[in-house]
Amino acid sequence: IMPLVLALVLGYLAGSIPFGLILTHAAGLGDIRKIGSGNIGATNVLRTGNKKVAAATLVLDALKAAVPVVVARYFWGEEAAMLAAVGAFFGHCFPVWLGFKGGKGVAVMIGSLLALAWPVGLIFCTVWLLIALTRKISSLSALTAAATAPIFAYLFGSEWLSMTVLVLALLLFFQHRENIARLLSGTEPRIGSQKKAS
Ligand code: G3P
Question: Cα–Cα 20 to 30 A to 84, which of 11, 17, 38, 62?
């Protein structure tokens, strides 16, 4: 049981590094929590107008989940790898350093899926892109990709992977509750729009 706990803790610690907050601060873009939706993720970093910092946030937030998954798999096996992904997701969404107010888990889910079962990760990115290109709404793209991910995880992975991905997807929906309310009322901003979302 100890390796599983270690994997969970390792994932949490890596996941709780708020790259969006750190990078925007380092780039002199101000406090990302006071911009747009107030979220610390890449979508909101893009609302500062700086595409490079937004892309870096996306990549690093994905890597902070992928790295612990790969490390946990190497040392402790596949079950530990899945727990590392769950840990990273909780760390990102509920970081102890930010009073448990973290992000929404989209980049982290991409990194976890690519590391756990890359075809499932690629499908997630494809679904995200398809919706993003046609509807131009980041949250809607993420919600659609997350809702379908457990099915693809079952088809191209295992039952356990599917259960793990379902947990991540449910948490992702919970973190998007304000976005869901805005989507339903038709007030969710489009990608790159500078408008205040809340
Ligand atoms: O990546 C999170 C995205 O789905 C929504 O972000 O800033 O529009 O709430 P935001």
Answer: 38
